[in-house]
Amino acid sequence: MTINPLKNSNHTDSTMSMASPTKGYWYYFHHDNNQIAVYGSGFTGKEIVYLNDDPVSESRSFGLKSRHEFTSNGKDYKVELKVNSMIRGDVECSLYINNEPVGTESKALISNSNGRSTLKTLAIILAVSFAAGILVGLIAATFSNWFA
């Protein structure tokens, strides 16, 4: 069960402003005194759209795109989620009201905010992991020869 952090709160929790493996992706839009919050889990594929703290659409999606549609006060709302990069965990959320774009937010698990390239970071992680794997393999081979 996903708990809406907006319930009984007059502000957006700053910890929800970034994407996180444990807290998922949260997107926030304000329009005509309405707050639209969108939650997406990168692990379970669960997506929930809230209008003024009340869930109005819920589904599971494991594709690269998904859409939620609902109507409130005579207006047709559409929320689209699109994966821009699976490597970085970059997901974009767009809000449309009566087919007019209202806003778009994009969040990523791995960002380039410190100036270092994502590919460089991934290359370093892979190189260190490969070296550690070789080291563990050599140690295991050495111990297995001692006990053979």
Q: Which band does the percent of strand residues land in?
A: 35-45%
The number of helical segments is 1
Order of helices and strands: EEEEEEEEH
**Amino-to-carboxy terminus distance:** 52 Å
The average pLDDT is 83
Q: Specify the biggest β-sheet.
A: 4 strands, antiparallel
CATH class of the largest domain: Mainly Beta
Helix content: 10-25%
Number of domains: 2
Overall geometry comes to elongated
Transmembrane segments: 122-147
Keywords: Membrane, Transmembrane, Transmembrane helix
Describe this structure in words.
By secondary structure, the chain is α+β, with helices and mostly antiparallel strands. The protein has two domains: 14-107, Lipocalin (Beta Barrel), CATH 2.40.128.180; 112-148. The chain is 20% helix and 42% strand. The chain has one helix and eight strands. It has one helix at 118-146, and strands spanning 25-31, 34-40, 46-51, 54-60, 65-72, 75-85, 90-97, 100-107. A four-stranded antiparallel sheet has the order 1-2-3-4, with no helix packed on it. A four-stranded antiparallel sheet has the order 5-6-7-8, with no helix packed on it. A hairpin with a 2-residue loop joins β1 and β2. The radius of gyration is 21 Å and the shape is elongated. The model is unreliable at 1-15 (pLDDT under 50). Keywords: Membrane, Transmembrane, Transmembrane helix. The chain crosses the membrane at residues 122-147.
